[in-house]
Amino acid sequence: MKILIAEDDELMLRTLEFRLKKDGHTIFMARDGREALEQIDSKLPDLVITDIMMPYSSGMEIVGFLKQKYNNEIKVIILSGMGQENVILEAFRLGADDYITKPFSPNELSVRVNRFLAGMKNTA
Amino acid sequence: MNNFSDSFSGLSGLGIITIIFTISIIALGFYILTYLFIVNKRDSKLERWKFLADTLIRNAIFFEEDQSASSATSLLKVLEVNIFPIPERVKKILPDPHFRQLMMRELIAAKQNMTGAASVNLKNLFRQLELDQDALEMVRSNSWYLKASGIQYLGIMEMAEHKNLVMPFTNSKSGLVRVEAQNAILKFSGFDGLRFLDDASFPITEWQQIKILEELAQLPTEHFTGIEKWLKSSNDTVVIFALKLARNYFRFELYDHVISCLNHANPEVRYNAILAAKQLQTETTASDILKFYEFDTERNQLAIIRVLEDLRSENNLPFLLNVFLEESNQLKIAAAKAIVAIENGVEQLELQISSNQYPYNEIIRQVKTERK
Questions:
Q1: How many domains does chain B have?
Q2: DSSP 3-state assignment of B82?
Q3: CA-based, 20 to 30 A from A107: which of A16, B132, B328, B347?
C-alpha cells in the first residue's frame, strides 16, 4: 500500500516512516501542508496520515482537499494532540476516516494502520 | 614619514574618499564572507548533530523489536546500565554541552509524542546519556528559568527517583518553578502527587487547575484520599480545586463537606461548592443550598437556581415562582427556565402570572420557545 505521511516534526516523520516501511508499505513524506497537497496529486497514495498543525496548509485543509477532490478514494487518518476533541470532531465532519492521538506507541499505530488498510481491502 | 605624507598630498580629497570607501567595501565584504562561512559551518554542524541525535533516538524507539535475541538475553540487557549501543561518532561529541542540549531537546520532544515501550526506551536512553544529571544541574541553578526547565525535563522524562528533590519546589515563590514542579510530581506519582496540596500556600491559578485536571484525566481513575483535608485548607484556591476534584470524581461521600463550604467567606469557593453539590446531589440538596440563597451574590444565586432546574422537583415551585416575581430580570429568566423544566411548570407559571404584563410575557415566551 502507498502511504503519504505529512508531518512537520522530522523525528516523528522518520519514526513513522521507519515503522510503516517495516510493515512493507511504500512511504512518501511531506514536511508541510503544501508539499503534502502536491504529493497527493503526484503519488496518489492509498492512505494519508497527516498531522493537524503544519506550515502552509493544515491537516484540516488536507482532509477537506482529499474529500473534495478524491471523494473516498484516498483515506485519511489525522494525528492530533491530547485534548483536541473539538479538532477531531471537526476533522470527522470534514471527512477524516480515523484519528490517532499523540502521544502514541509506534507499534500501536502500525497495528491500527494495518487494520485500517485491511478493512479498506475488504470493502473494496 | 615624509614620503607617506607626500604620496597623500598628491591625492585630491575625492581620491582619498574613494580609497577609504574601497577599503571599507573590501573589509565589509570580507566580514560578510567570514560571517557566512561561520554560520554555514555552524548550521551544517548542527544539521549533522541533529541527524545523529535523531538516528540515536529512532534506534532507541525501536530498540526492543530490533533485538532478535531471546527474551532472557533481552532481560539481561535491560538490567545492564548501558542498554543502547552508542555509535563512536556520538560518543565523541557527547561531552559537548551544545550537543547535550540538542540531544535533550530532541529526546524531550520525542518522549512527549510516544507511549508504551518506545516511551520507556527513550526514558532509559535519557538516563544512559546522563542527561538527567544535566537536568539536575539546571534544577540546582540560581536562575528560576533554568530551574523550571530542569524540573520540566525531569517530569516529562518521568525521572521519579528525583521526586524528593522536586517536591519542595511545588510551593516555590516563583510561579513558573511552582507550576512545573506540581506538574512533574503528578507525572512521577499520579494521584498521590496531589499531596503537594497539603502545604500549598500560594494560589493555584485557574490555568494550573485546568492543567492538573487534564494530567489526572490521563491516569486510570483510582480512589485517592486528601480531598476532605483540602476542603478545609486556608488557601482558598486549594478549597476550590478540591471542590472540582470532588465534582469530577463523583465523590458522593464528601457531600456534607461540600455543603459546609457554602458557608465559606469567599464567594468563588461558595460558587464551586454549589456546582459540586449539583453533581453530588441527594434528596436534601435543594433545601441544603436554599438556606444560603438569600445571603449570597447574584452570580451564586443564579447557580443555585440552575441546580434547582437540574433537580426538577415540584417542591421548589413556590420558591421559584417567588424569584420569578420578585427578583432581577436575570434571576427571573433563570427561575422561569427552572419552572418550565418541572412537570406542569409552564401551566403553573401561566396560572400565577398575568402573561400580558412586561417583562413576564417576554420571559415566558422566550423560555417556552427555548424548551421547544
A1: 1
A2: coil
A3: B132
Is residue B324 situated within a structural domain? yes
* Nearest chain B Cα distance for residue A113, angstroms: 16
What is the value of ipTM here, to two decimals?
Answer: 0.80
Q: Is B248 helix (H, G, I), strand (E, B) or coil?
A: helix
Count of structural domains, chain A: 1
With an 8 Å Cβ cutoff, are B118 and A106 in contact?
yes
Q: Is B114 on the interface with A (CB under 8 A)?
A: yes
CA dihedral angle for residue B229, residue B233, residue B239, residue B241, rounded to 10 degrees: -70
Q: What is the pLDDT of residues B198-253, one digit of tens each?
A: 999 999 999 999 999 988 988 887 788 899 999 999 999 999 999 999 999 999 99
Residue keyed to cell 463537606: B257
| pLDDT tens profile A62-97 | 999 999 999 888 999 999 886 678 888 999 999 999
In a domain, B326, yes or no: yes
Closest chain A CA to residue B55: A11
List the single residue in B50, B58, B116 with the smallest CB-CB distance to A15. Answer: B58
Query: Smallest Cβ distance to B116: which of A11, A82, A105?
Result: A105
What is the per-residue pLDDT across B99-130, written as a single tens digit (0 to 9) for each? 999 999 999 999 999 988 899 999 999 999 99
Residue B357 located in a structural domain: yes
Q: Kindly report the CATH number assigned to the domain that includes residue A71.
A: 3.40.50.2300
Q: How far apart are CA B82 and CA B128, in angstroms?
A: 6
| Residue contact A108–B106, C-beta within 8 A | no
What are the angstrom distances between the C-alpha of B153 and each of A26, A34, B61, B157? 36, 33, 18, 6
The whole domain housing A96 covers: 2-123
Residue B217 lies in a domain: no
Note whether B96 contacts A: Cβ–Cβ < 8 A.
Answer: no
